[in-house]
Structures are given as structure tokens and as C-alpha cells.
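Q: C-alpha cells for this one, please.
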Amino acid sequence: MVTCNKCGKPLPEIEADVFDHEGADDWVRFKIHPYHNEAVCVDLPMSWTGFDLSDEEARECIRCPQCKEYPFDDQEMHIHTQTTVVMFDKRAHPGESDIPVEWIKNQIKDHPAMHAASWSRLLELWEEGNKHEK
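A: Here is the predicted structure, written as C-alpha cells:
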């Protein structure tokens, strides 16, 4: 288990400062994944406030949930970009969907910062398409 180098508490996740779809920022928790033997990896959205900053400034946008400090003694960071693509299958009948609304709502709830706008748009399209079926 990874521990915070500042407070010594277990660190299954970190807090990262991210922008929401309205432009406000908030601290959101993200799981830590082991990366080889000497590093950890955290998948953050493109809306992470530290994305275009220097490494020094970016460290201010990541913190331990318990002590609120940058949790690692080593200051080195490698920031990689990743894109999530949501694609829609053209259906034979407009509005037909196999995607359950509750599943989409749970995705929005479980991932408040990560791709919330994409999940919200998916829900809007699903609801819009099903209005024609009623």
C-alpha cells in the first residue's frame, strides 16, 4: 500500500484540483495505481487544473486527502495526455437504446469530474431519442 510521505497514512487515492463543466474548480478524489516498482500513476481528466502548469505549480494541484500536502518526497512528475472518445451507434429506429438511464446516472455520480459532461450529453441524447417513442 502506498503511504503519504508527509503524514504516513495509507494513500489509496489522492485529491486533485479539477475544473467542472462550468469552469469552477474543486478537489476530487482519484485512485492511485502502481506503475512499475518505483512510481504510481493517477488517471486525471484534461480538466485537471495543473495540466498546463510547470511541474512545481502542478504539484500544488495534487494533495493527500488526510494532510492536504503533496504526498510524495520525490518531486518528479511525468504528465501524459489521454483522450476519451464516446461514440454513438446509429440505430435502425431513432431513440432506440440499450443503455440504461440508471447506469448513465451512476457514471455521472461515480465520476463527478471525469468526463461528466460526456455522460450528461449521453443521457440527454438518450432521453431526447426516447421522447419520440412515448
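A few notes: The two ends are 51 Å apart (CA to CA). The chain has two domains: 1-82, 84-134.
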